[in-house]
């Protein structure tokens, strides 16, 4: 039985240039060799796949779909015991959820990355890779993330720190639907909400042809009267709007009304994400749109 190691770029595959800029130039074999040299990982016969070499901040939905396709291909290769995916941390939570929604693998798929470049004296990549390989060896089916000495289920994951080695946290999420439809032709925008915001950016997304919009709302999922009016315009155009929050933790409740709060947004047709934060809410909405889900199905999925 063989393990597959797929690299997509990110800090774990990056080194720092003389001008101080970091870029993902290492292939999967190089990352593995570095981990072996640091004593974190024993020499192993892995099938390596150099898929992408991108900062994960630059990944598109098409890129994430390509990662999902590559993982599915590796899982379908006879004798594969599991797959480790090396990924940048900026959008790791998004790709992890897409893999969960699309693949529901019977073998283990574990994503990991790093907060410090591969050439840093205190690089955390080798230890994270070792943890990911160990989890795959255990053989539990499903998609997980190994990072900073912890193991996370894919749904409910968020990046909580811009610099801590233990960069991720998670919220418990209920069962999400299996959504196998491809997302590479879907556009879902995230629109930030701030106190006093108008609907300029929401209207711009609608005009740009977005298939769905996620509001990064205030508090438990609130906005303004102007945004509520923009949500009505989206509803009339058949474009679903999901309300998440810039607040990193807690359950969202559409309770405030009279000035553009969550109750007003819900009355205008928006769907509140119970737990998912904007990044993962975008992925779930894109997968639902790609699957042709109706309003009731969208509401049920985000109630998990």
From TrEMBL:
UniProt-listed Enzyme Commission number(s): 3.5.1.1
Every Asparaginase/glutaminase C-terminal domain range: 187-302
EC class of the enzyme, as a word: hydrolase
Organism superkingdom: Bacteria
A molecular-function term among this protein's GO annotations: asparaginase activity
Gene3D superfamilies named among the record's database cross-references: 3.40.50.40, L-asparaginase, N-terminal domain
Family: Belongs to the asparaginase 1 family.
Protein name: asparaginase
Organism: Nocardioides imazamoxiresistens
Upper lineage: Bacteria, Bacillati, Actinomycetota, Actinomycetes, Propionibacteriales
């Amino acid at each position: 039985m063989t393990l597959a190691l797929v690299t997509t770029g990110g800090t774990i595959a990056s080194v720092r240039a003389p001008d101080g800029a970091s870029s993902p130039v290492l292939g999967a074999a190089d990352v593995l060799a570095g981990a072996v040299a640091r004593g974190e990982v024993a020499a192993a016969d892995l099938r390596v796949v150099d898929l992408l070499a991108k900062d994960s901040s630059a990944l598109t939905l098409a890129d994430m779909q390509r990662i999902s396709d590559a993982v599915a291909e590796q899982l379908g290769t006879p004798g594969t015991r599991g797959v480790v995916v090396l990924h940048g941390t900026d959008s790791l939570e998004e790709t992890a959820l897409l893999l969960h929604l699309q693949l529901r693998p019977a073998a283990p798929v574990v994503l990991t990355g790093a907060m410090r470049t591969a050439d840093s004296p205190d690089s955390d990549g080798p230890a994270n890779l070792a943890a990911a390989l160990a989890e795959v060896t255990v053989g539990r089916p499903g998609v997980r993330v190994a990072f900073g000495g912890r193991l996370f289920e894919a749904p409910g994951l968020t990046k909580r720190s811009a610099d801590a080695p233990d960069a991720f946290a998670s919220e418990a999420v209920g069962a999400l639907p299996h959504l196998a439809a491809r997302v590479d032709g879907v556009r879902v925008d995230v629109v930030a909400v701030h106190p006093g915001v108008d609907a300029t950016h929401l209207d711009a997304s609608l005009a740009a042809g977005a298939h769905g919009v996620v509001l990064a709302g205030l508090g438990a999922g609130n906005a303004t009267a102007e945004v509520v009016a923009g949500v009505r315009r989206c509803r009339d155009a058949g474009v679903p709007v999901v309300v998440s929050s810039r607040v990193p933790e807690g359950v969202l409740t559409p309770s405030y009304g009279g000035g553009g709060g969550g109750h007003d947004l819900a009355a205008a047709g928006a769907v509140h994400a119970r737990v998912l934060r904007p990044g993962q809410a975008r992925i779930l909405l894109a997968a639902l749109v790609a699957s042709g889900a109706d309003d009731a199905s969208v509401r049920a999925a985000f109630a998990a």
